[in-house]
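To whoever is on call:

I kicked off a structure prediction for a single chain this morning and the downstream step that reads the tokens threw a length-mismatch warning. I double-checked the sequence; it's 249 residues and nothing unusual in it as far as I can see. Pasting both halves so you can look.
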Amino acid sequence: MYDMATRMHTLSLLADGRSMSSVSKETGVSRASIRSWRVRVEPVPRRAEVNSWTPPADTASYSYLLGLYLGDGHISQPASHRVPSLRITCDDKWPGLMNAAEEAMRKVLPYNQTCRARKLGCHDVKVYSKHLVQLFPQHGPGKKHDRRITLEDWQQAIVDAHPWEFVRGLIHSDGCRITNWTVRNGKRYEYPRYFFTNKSDDIRKLCTDTLAKVGVQWTILARGSDPFNVSIARKASVALMDEHIGPKY
């Protein structure tokens, strides 16, 4: 009777703390259907989210999720919601990326509900938590490239401990692996290349600093006069990226 977008929207409202009756009234979905969806999505009751905040226990998953957030992530709290939500926008071409993003959210916030909201050509993978601003203190008004982005000491320690996970999150959000080609002496040659593209000077520097720490050589390719593109093309560095990152899937 109901499409998947309606189901995900309904479960999202429940995750926001709304009562079953109010959600049923707003969406037009019967209480019986809502109850059955909730049971199927969450067969084991979850412990209530703790009031006090501490850094995440699963630091590897957090490092990956931090990379995703700095690329395509956004924290918001509409007036109708009691707690903020973290949204990672994922292209429908990469279902594996959606799964990885949702898995990381569940490991970093194991007692919080996740959901997916369908949009044109993509899905928003979402999690709700009152501790999101503490988890991602880079949150603020406006676009990321219009404000200063620096890591807290505890975040930098996590990235230093799990640099590849951080780079993977950045590449999965605002990066890609492509095949370039050139012609030499009448013969076509193809070679793989990685790109990371972001308008924020600070986020690009976080990327390049971390790449340097793991032994990946990079260069900046300007888009017109804007140095938005981090390029990784040297054979040894691409091999390292392929070993730890690989193409999106």
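Update from on-call: the warning came from a stale cache, not from the record. Cleared it. Sanity check on the structure: Residues 156-244 form a domain with the Endonuclease I-creI fold (CATH 3.10.28.10).
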